[in-house]
Amino acid sequence: MRYGYWMPVFGGWLRNVPDEGMQASWDYVKRLTQRSEQWGYDLSLIAELNLNDIKGIDQPALDAWSTAAALAAVTDRIELMVAVRPNFHHPALFAKAAANIDRISNGRLALNVVSSWWADEAKQYGLQFDQHDDRYARTEEWLKVVDGLWTEERFSFDGQFYQTEDAICSPKPAERPTVYAGGESEKAKTMIAAQCDAYVMHGDPAEAIAPKIADMAARREAAGGAPMHYGMAAYAIVRDSEAEAKRELDRITTVSDLPAGYANFDQWLSGTQLERELKIQEYSVSNRGLRPNLVGTPEQLKERIAEYEHAGLDLLLLQMSPQAEEMERFAAQVMGTA
Fold it and tell me: Which stretches within the chain are classed as H helix?
């Protein structure tokens, strides 16, 4: 299993806990990322939203790509998996900038391609917001342009959304960045199987993840591509006893008032094909992070992680709070690396 974590660009992950003791600041994420390399983490996922989806839209949120460029220069080993939304980035200009960041990192850049869901954010920034199938049609073209500029000396493209004419991208990436993407609709899975390298999923029990991996593996084989990698989001709580872990779970899921960002969550549900019956309690942690039940003693978490490995999962994308302290504990007691 590879272990990754979500960079706390929103100042934490708990919607019911206003202050988690980690600022949305360059100083915090720089120290966290450098320490995470020492603790043995393999990857950091840097989410891209211009508005804060966790603490409320008026709260600070770090920019993903300038943060990634800065981290590339001050780290040595960790893979930087940065979210990118095609309607926010022209693909030819993006290919040029991302290739430079990959060079700065000596080949450690990866993409998490996200077909945007937040209509209000796009409206605030004056950007195009496509309906569901159009979002994936745009993403298909966007990936073709980026890959073409990364692999060909001159690249021309004439599509519905994008056009280039003998475009040059030089220098090219040190290594072609891995392309991760997620989605549960038929359109999304077809696109990912054909054009991406890895499939990332929201949290679910191992018995629900196994058929999703089997389905994507079959789609990938039919598309004629190399085997894919599979990742999943999860929130982790590790304690010396199960009772202690459950007390912490109760603390972070107790809802007294609807949090500031609940309207955004409701919009996200209405704009995707995810289950509509998510409980408000589950909203306390994003990306269905509590469903994998990585809550308990080190031994219990190791057993559950082994079940995911057996299902074909090879990457966990973890959220924890407070992040630095909990990540160090998880590395020492579960990963055995800190």
Answer: 26-39, 64-74, 91-104, 119-124, 132-151, 186-195, 206-223, 242-253, 262-270, 298-311, 323-330
**Residue whose structure tokens are 């190791």:** 302
Please state, for a pLDDT cut of 90, what percent of the chain lies above it: 79
190-200: b (≥16 Cβ within 10 Å) or e: ebbbebbbbbb
The packing angle between helices 132-151 and 91-104, to 10°, is 50
What DSSP string describes 130-150?
--HHHHHHHHHHHHHHHHHHH
Of 176, 182, 222, the C-alpha closest to 198 is: 182
Query: Cα(293)–Cα(279) distance, rounded to whole angstroms?
Result: 15
Strand, coil or helix: what is 319?
strand
Longest alpha-carbon distance in the chain? 63
Q: How many CB atoms lie within 10 A of CB 286?
A: 24
Asked if residues 181 and 136 have their Cβ atoms less than 8 Å apart, the reply is no
**Whole-structure pTM value:** 0.91
232 touches 308 (CB < 8 A): yes
Higher confidence at residue 45 or residue 119? 45
Structural domains of the chain, with CATH? 2-335 (3.20.20.30)
* pLDDT(208) > 60: yes
Confirm if 281 and 269 have CB atoms less than 8 A apart: no
- The tokens for 281 are 């309690």
Of 19 and 277, the one with more pLDDT: 19
The per-residue pLDDT for range 157-167, each reduced to its tens digit, is: 999 999 999 99
